[in-house]
Structures are given as structure tokens and as C-alpha cells.
Amino acid sequence: MDSTRKLWAGLAVLLFASFAALLWVGSEIHRQAPPMPEQVVTTDGTVVYTRADIETGRQVWQSIGGQQLGSIWGHGGYVAPDWGADWLHREAEAILDAWAAREHGVDSYRQLDEPTQAAYAKRVQALLRPNTWDAGTATITLHAERAAAMAKVSAHYESLFSNDPATAELREAYAMRNDTVPGAEHRRQLAAFYWWAAWASVTERPGSEISYTANWPHDELVGNTPPSNLLIWTVFSVLFLIAGVGLLGWHYATSHGEEMQPVLPKSDPLALIKVTPSMRATAKYFWVVIALFLVQILLGATTAHYQVEGQEAYGFALSEILPYSLTRTWHTQLAVLWIATAWLGMGLYIAPAISGYEPKFQRLGVNLLWTCLLVIVVGSFAGQWMAVMQKLGLAHNFWFGHQGWEYVDLGRFWQWFLFVGLLLWLTLVGRALWPAMRKGAESRSIVGLLFLSVVAIGVFYSAGLMWGEHSHLSMVEYWRWWVVHLWVEGFFEVFAVAVIAFLFTRLGLLQVRSATVAVLFATIIFMAGGVLGTLHHLYFTGTPTAVIGLGASFSALEVVPLAYVGFEAWHNYRLGKATPWMARYKWPIMFFLAVSFWNLVGAGLFGFLINPPLPLYYMQGLNLTANHGHTAMFGVYGMLGIGLMLFCLRGLKPDLQWSERLLKTSFWSLNIGLAGMSLFTLLPLGILQLDAAIEHGYWFARSAEFMQQPIVDLLVWMRVPADTLFSVGAVSLAWFVFRLWVAPKRGAPVSSATTVAAAAIVPRR
């Protein structure tokens, strides 16, 4: 068996074992998730909440933006608090204050001496932590003292989500519009859902001393401190990382230098590929990419500004028309949409280029899919606006409004529409690739891996359809991360690796055989940690402790291939200098170099900073998470999307002279702006929050008291220069693309004789 077959066999075994383990974990999450009670009663039988209250409360939460307005169990927005952590601390303090008033005649327990406060803390933990869930009756029983405190906290939330002047200042601090939830009953039910999230965070699992969320969030007042196994698995994750880097280093040391350099073509083979009608029709995809990218930046600036002014933008009451939860929804959703559109357009362009075959009605399919994408964007955004403005109603919100889950916010109808669109894309790309697969015009393995990644992209989005409107919160999080981690961060990356390998082999810069081995090996290394690494998002979402062990071990392996991105960057840079005509691809390759850099920094350094269990216990949902998200999402996938788009544009307009000035401005402005955003705002703000979370508790790091400090306002304002520079880069890129069609500059024509000669070039095996 040759090396290629061995790698294919290894990849198959790896994927089978990884997904088997991931599905087993899903079954355990389903079995051990925090229970949903039929009713919550006091010891004297008074009903506090029913299951209908909690379930309807979650529907209300989803309709107002869900994870885009604050967070639940650490997943979501950063301006408003984590509602479960906030409720938990408020409830504990309400109980303590009641005891202090009754037993010592003071207004607050904080007025008591330290020994008394310590004794009170033990008493409140004894009240909150025991599990009173009765599986036989599906009932949670509470002490009357706790029920009284819950009523007090509920009244606070009912005021906050209304237009009550008493909580107007806090609404502004949380960037909430007035009357976020118009109905009084819905506000009460929303509070019931927040209570249940807090209950699961402090109530100990049966037979255990840790809560359903592994004692998250950190709050020593209620006894939520990190379990010892977090430290143990953090140490193991570091050991796995060191071992993985060592093994990969050994591989590079033993295999480096084996590749024979091909005889380089004298002209650019890709520039002379015949552009088919369907390939030409992909141009409109890249126009949409630019439009969505610009709108996303505008919404991102608006969302960031809300953190300073709360409900306004320079005096204009913007929240009454475009609330924070909506601008953040569209900002995060557009990040996925424009990057995915760039990659979808690349797939539709590259498939006929690989096979040299234009299937019947391919152009019609490309145009139809483009139309569907526009309808999905406009339709889903309109539904989300109606939902957040409370004009849609709970009966229709799940299907046509706002599901409330970060990155998969669009209503279920639009999810199905998008899934059907992806299947159409899979069909279009697959049937154009099939002749190359059958005839072996290029390396079967590279094209085969490309085809399989196309299938995975089309099919795995279905994970977003696996939960229903009333599915358990833990199971929704499990399937949601299949979409965000596996679909976006996994199979799209494999697709990109295969496309880049094809481009370099087609350009004659790499031997097909060595490129095939490299691509398969890279895919194995990435998937070794990538599949089960999904679990690091689920440590504290009501999941069993096995999630922490598996997630810590395999998420560490995700960082291993990033340890050698310098080799990849240098390799790509060297290929870009290989021949004079490679100057045509200078800027696509520069964007690939940026991908390597941000892979190391954004995904690698900033990712591993927060991914091990013990650090994530304190950092989940802080701006350190946002720092990783921005630098990895745009730095890796956004830069990659732009680089792939530029390759396609070079093929669509082979004879045009590109504006060096515009592309240089775009490249450096985007990269420096992203770095400034990270270093001047997100990273220092996240570190300040981390210090607050460790010293005072997670609730404080996310509180208005902390987030409204002058230093926080200063750090947010320090984003302005970086954001402005980033916007200049985006506008420069948009102007560059615009001029390719509106004011093109012709370069040297390609002669027909050279075309025939170049077309005959086949990458050497």
C-alpha cells in the first residue's frame, strides 16, 4: 500500500472513531442534562413556576435576541450580563440581606463583620446547593426563604425588561431598548427561564459535589469554585500539546527536503483556462461578498458604539429602531454569510476549471443559487427585525424570526432554505467535478478530498436542524457547535486546503504527488483535534464530566498543526517568488500569508489561551473570547475568503492590470486594523475582566458596575483608530473590485500561441 492509500485509510479510521465518540458524548449529554421540572414548588406546596413558564420564558428570551443580548451559561453577547450568573448572585444576596435584616436589624449583609458574613455564606450554600429534584414527580421543591428571594429578583427583571424609570439607567448600561418585552406575563416567564439557568449552575448533580455546569460560573459566595478535575485536565492538555508539537516536529525533520522541484512553466497556466459561462456567472457572488462585508463592518461599529452610549448613537435614539441585540445578530450572522459566499463562489468557479467540463444548465443553477442567497439574507433579516421589535409573536418566531442562538440565529424556515441551497451548491459543484474524479485529470486524491469536503459542507449544515423549539438547552448547544465548529471551522477549512493545493499544482509550482500527501496529512492532523475539539465549547453547558476530559485532550491537538504555520507561510511566500509571472498572484498569496499569521496568533495563541478547562472556567464569555473570535474568524477565514476570491477574480479578468496601490492599502489596513482592535481593546479589556472574575466572581466581571468604569469606556474608544483603518481596508478592496468592471485597465494581451502551449502543461507527478 503506497503512502497515499495509507493516509486515506488513516483519515477514514480517524473520522469514524472521532464521530463515534462525538455521538456517544451527545447521548450522554441527553441522558445527564439538567432536568426540566414540571413544576417548582415551595415546601408548603405553593407553585412558584411551571414547566410552561420556563419553556415560554425561553421562547421570549429567544425572540428578543437570545444570546445576542447578554448570555446564558457564558455563550452570547458581552455588554449585558450573563443572566444566569447575574440571577444567581442576586438571589444569594437577597437571601443574605433578608437574614441580616431579620437577625441583626441591618439593611445589607455587607454591614456585618467578616466572621458573620462567612457563616452566612455557608448557610446560603447549604440552602442553594442541595438537589431537591424529584424524578418521580418531576418537581423541584424550594424553601420558602428562597422563594421569597426569587420573587424579589424576578421583580427586578420584570422592571428591567419593561420601560420602568427605576431601571432606566441599568437598561442603558446593558444597551437594552425600553420595553424590550412588552407583556407583563412574558416578563415573569422570562425571569422563570433565567432562574432555571441559575438553578442548574449551583445545584449539585446527584451523587456529586459539583453543579450541573461544573460549578460554573465562578462565585465563591454560593460555593461555585473550580473543581479539581479542571486543573488535572488542563495539565494534561498542555502535555498533549507538547507531545503533538514534538511528533509533528519529528515528522517535518524526517520528511523535509524529499520533494523534487517541478520544472516551472514559462507562463501562467491559470490565466489561460477557458472561462465558461457558469464560471463567469460567479462574479456576482463576489459582488455580494463585498456588499455583505461592508454592511457587516458598519453593523460592527454600531454594535461597539452601543457599549459606550447604551441606547443611542451620538444622541440619536437608535435602539428604538435598530436595537443592540439586532445589530449584533446581523454582525455575527453576516460574518458567516459573506465568508461562506466567498467560498461557495470559489467552489462554483473552480469545479469547471478543474475538470474542463461545463454541465448542462450549470449557469442557470449558479444564477438560481445566487438568487436564493439574496432571498435568505433579506428574508431572515426582516424576520429577525420583526422578532426583536416584538411584532412577530411567539407562535411564529421560531420558524420565521429569531432563534436566539449565536451564529445560527435565523428562523428555522430560513435554515431549511439555506440547507436546500447548500445541497444545490453541492450538486452544482459535484457534477462539474465528477469528470475529473472519473478520468483522473488531476490528482484523484486532491480532487477527491475537495469533493468530500464539498459533500460535508452541504450535508453537515443539517446539524443546525437537529433541535426543535423546545429541545433541551444542553442539546441545542451540542448541535449548535456542530455547525459553528465543525461546519465553519472544520470542513470549510479542509475545502480551502484542497483548493489551495489544486491551485499551486495547476500553476505548476508543486508536484501533484507530494502535494497530495501534504494535503492528506494536514487534513488528518487538523481532524485529529478538530472533531472532538468541538467539546471544549461544552464544558459548562450542563454536560457530563467526560466532556471536559475529551474536550481538553483533543482541543489541545487543534493547536498542534498551527505550531508549524511558519513553514506553510514561508513555503507559500517562496512559491509566490518562484517565477516572474507569479507577480500576478502576489496579493492572493499575501492574504494566504496573513491566514498563516492569524492561524498562529488568533486561532493558536489566543485560542489556546482560553480553551483549556481551568482558564476557560474564568474566561468564558469575557472579551478574551471575543478577542479569539475576531482574530480567528476574520484573520483566518475572512482572509482566506478574500484570498480565494482574488484568485477567482484573476481568472475572471485575466488580461486586466490590477491596482497595486488599492490592494496594498486593503491588505495592510485590514491586518493592522485587526491587530489594533485586538491589542488596544479586546485583549486588555479581557484581561481586566479576567482579574475581576478571579477576585470577585464572574457576575462582577460582566456587571454594569464593572463595564461602566471610565477605563472600560477608554478602551472601547481606543478601537476607533483601528476600526477606521480596518474600514479603509474594506473600502479599498470594494473599490478595487468595482473598478475591475467599471473602469478596468487593460494589461498585456495573452497570445493564442501561448494559450495553446500553456494549456498543454500538466503538473508533474
TrEMBL record:
Pfam families: COX1, NorB_cytochrome_c-like. Residues 37-218 form the Nitric oxide reductase subunit B cytochrome c-like domain. GO terms for cellular component: membrane. InterPro entries: Cyt_c_oxase-like_su1_sf, Cyt_C_Oxase_1, NorB_cytochrome_c-like. The keyword tRNA-binding does not apply. Keywords: Membrane, Transmembrane, Transmembrane helix. The chain crosses the membrane at residues 230-250, 285-306, 335-354, 366-387, 413-434, 446-467, 479-505, 517-540, 546-567, 587-610, 630-649, 670-690, 724-742. GO terms for biological process: aerobic respiration. GO terms for molecular function: cytochrome-c oxidase activity; heme binding. The keyword Hydrolase does not apply. This is Putative nitric-oxide reductase. It comes from Pseudoxanthomonas suwonensis (strain 11-1).
